[in-house]
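re: the backbone from monday

yeah here it is again, tokenized this time
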């Protein structure tokens, strides 16, 4: 399993606009792309006493793929262009091999695991 990570910093309003782009444009294209399994979007919390976190958030988008990332390249490039347009920033992009993962619900029941 592979994971692509895109990270960027943006003002809170730009983060909200970026979430709209992800939901309306990126996810539908990824769903149509072979090997796409899902995604997670994370944003940093404001930290009391750190004024820079009141004005900017770090956003990390993780997309998960069952095989190579080649088929997702055009959608990833388009997402990067949209982040640049909406948030006025250039995301950093990395790819990873997923070694292990597990999710549980609030009651402690396992929802998913890999491998």
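seq for it, each position gets an aa:
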């Amino acid at each position: 399993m592979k994971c692509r990570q895109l990270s960027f910093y943006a003002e809170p309003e730009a983060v909200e606009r970026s979430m709209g782009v992800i939901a309306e444009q990126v996810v539908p294209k990824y769903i149509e792309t072979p090997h796409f399994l899902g995604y997670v979007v994370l944003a940093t919390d404001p930290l009391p006493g750190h004024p820079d976190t009141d004005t900017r958030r770090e956003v990390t988008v993780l997309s998960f793929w069952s095989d190579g990332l080649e088929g997702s390249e055009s959608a990833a490039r388009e997402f990067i262009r949209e982040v640049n347009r909406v948030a006025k920033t250039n995301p950093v992009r990395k790819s990873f091999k997923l070694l292990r993962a597990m999710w549980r619900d609030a009651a402690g029941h396992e929802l998913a695991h890999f491998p």
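The chain has a mean pLDDT of 86. Residues 12-31 form the longest helix (20 residues).
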